[in-house]
Specification:
Elements: E1 2-5, H1 9-14, E2 19-23, H2 25-32, H3 42-65, E3 72-75, H4 80-89, E4 92-95
Parallel strand pairs: 1-2, 3-4
Length: 96
Amino acid sequence: MLLANENFGNVAVENGLTFRTLISREQTDALLGNPNNWHPIKSAQHGARWMVGVIDQTYEISAQAITDPETVILNYPAVFAGKLIHELQGLSLIHI
């Protein structure tokens, strides 16, 4: 199963993966489309503010989707839901 932003849905399904949307296209665009995201100083603050708005959503979707205790989470470090599930459920975590 792949949990990712909506942009990856078609590619996942075309390659035989079950897909769940963690973040909508609009939410992704709000992060990546903002010039502050690409600013060397403002990007950290912009990203943190954006993550505060989606952390509950991404955690809930992830927690509902991950039911197998043998699951290994491959997670980009800035996506905090994977880290939370790792800590709360004891699942294996690999940062990519």
